Each structure stands twice: as structure tokens, then as C-alpha cells.
Amino acid sequence: MLPYSSSRSNSEFIHVPLTALKGRGSATRLAHRFEREVREPFDDGWAQDAAQAQEAEPLATRWVWEDCKSAITRNHSPDIGFDLSINPYRGCEHGCSYCYARPSHSYLGFSPGLDFETRLIAKRGLKDRLLHELASPRYRPGLMALGTVTDAYQPLERELGLTREVLQVLHDCRHPLAVVTKGSGIERDIDLLAPMAGRQLAGVYVTVTTLDAQLARRMEPRAAAPWRRLRTIRTLADAGIPVGVSVSPQIPFLNDDMEQVLEAARDAGATSAFYVVLRLPWELAPLFRQWLQLHYPDRAGRVMARIQDLRGGKDYDASFATRRSGQGIWAELIAQRFAKACERLGLNRQRHAWRTDLFRPTSPSRQLGLF
Q1: 11-47+63-345 CATH
Q2: 129-156 pLDDT per residue, tens
Q3: pTM
Q4: What are the helix (H) ranges across 275-328?
């Protein structure tokens, strides 16, 4: 039981100020929307030492297995250019402060804050389940997007290799796929991606949010540095893999170097690009406000005011027509900047064609029982 002094009223309790945690995009385990109780830290005067009380211990990343019930997720949103996707992991250690996938951790009973980046879930049996679904007589191939919710090349992939197993299956079945990632670990799988690209079966988008290393370190604390992602673009392009750049999300008054990012990516070998404006669904809105107050308190109000301008006066609008691009004059300005930069740099001049006629499903291995 926590110590409590009856001589002090609740109004005298001093709330412990949030402090940024090194290597983490969140500073708190914000309660998720299904939680019945909400707790806030406060100093009740019993701390042995004020400096010691404020010193936060480094948070270790933990992960557990989850038995995979289905490998392929089917998308029915009209504003997304793919119908099929696979995500080997739940949660993401990259810890991006703006990640729209954070609220998905709430369905697991975890906080979309620190839990999202420190309590990860890996899908056990993903490869076998994928083989089974691809071999179904009812399956019809289409573009498979890999890592659309959480990054398939986050640090845990180096240990578990689930993404590698998925790529091997798609390679063997000659199934088209597109990968979106911030992780330089994708270079490990060039031996699979390059032959697929030669058959018009593979393409990669590398997300480069900004060239400002300090801003990237705060927004995406455990993702590869901007210069490292540009080198990944060059490595993939040199291997003959079609590669593009995602300059997402666009956050007013923070990462305003869109044109410079597009030019650097083009110089590294990117031939296409896309962007999405910042999305703040569910618990992500208060989490992002916390992050702004911690790292950029001088402009937090301006940033949120402009975000609300993009969302019709709200923190977020989930309408399919505007959730990716925003609305209003500021959305039009971002769209014009992007279009003019791409035209000047020669990006998006050719549309990538994906082949589905080469698909050959591989039957899952079956071992007969003795009885």
C-alpha cells in the first residue's frame, strides 16, 4: 500500500512532471480507452530524495508470442491502394511519437503510450498460416503490403526473422508485394527482393520524415537515422529494386523540409513518392500533445492549431475522403508543394505495374500422424 499522510489534503499533492525518456517516443503509460480506472502520478511528500524520485530507470523492451490465427488482413478502405497486407508484429520499438497504430494496442489491454513500444507481440506460426491461406482454392492474388501497421523491420526482426520467413514464402509463390519501412534491416533481404523485382513482383518505400537528425531522434527515437535511410534507398536502387520515399507524416511547423527530403531521396535513387498528413485517432491525440509539450513547448499551440485547420477544427477526422490528405487551404498548400517538387525532380512519372499472373501457390507441408 502506498504511504499516505492524512495531514495533507488532496489539493496539496504535487503532480510529478513528465520527463522525456531516453530512446522512447512516449513519456507515460497513458490509459487506453477501454480502461475503467485512470491513475496519475503525484508526489505525496514521502519521496526519499527529489532527484532520485525524478530519475527514471531505463525501460527494457519485452516481447511475447501470440498464436497466429490469420496471416493476411484484407483492407476495405477506399483511400488505400492495396487490398491485402501482413504485419508480423504488434507494437513497434521504433517508438514514433506520431504513429497512428498506437491505439491498436488498446485492444490488447495495453497502453498506446509506453506499452506500444516496450511490450511487443510476435505472431507464432505466421509462415505456416500464410502458406495455408495462399494455397486456398478461393484465394486470388493481389498486391500484398508488408508492414503497413507496424514496421516489419523493427529491431525485434533481427532476433526472430518473421519478416524474412514471409518474404521467402512470397518469393517462392511469386506473389507481388510492397514494403514500407524505416528500418535499414531490409538490406538483409535483398537476395529475395531483387529477383522478385526483376519479375515485377516487389517494390519498397522507405519513410524519411525529415533530414533534421535532432528532430528525427525525438520523433522516431529507435528508427534508423535519416542519412542511414537514404543509404538504404541507394542500396536498394543499386540492386535493381524499385524504391520510393514516403515523406509521411507531414506535421506543420515541425518537418517543413519536404522538398529537401524529396530531392535527397531522388538523388539516392528513389523514383516515386507519397505523403500523408498527420493522423491523430483515439488516444494518439493526447499522446502527441504530451510529446509536443515535452519537446517543443514553444510551438505546441501553433502545431495543434494548424492540425485542427487540416481536420475541420478537430484533432482528427476519419472521413475516407480527407483522412490522408486533410482539408482546407493548408491541405491544398501541402498538396501543391508536393506536386510541384515531384514534377521538378521527376518523381512519380511512371506507375509501377505489378504482375499477378506468375502466382504459383506452394502447398503447406503436411506430416501424417501415426494414428
Answers
A1: 3.20.20.70
A2: 999 999 999 999 999 999 989 999 999 9
A3: 0.90
A4: 284-295, 300-310
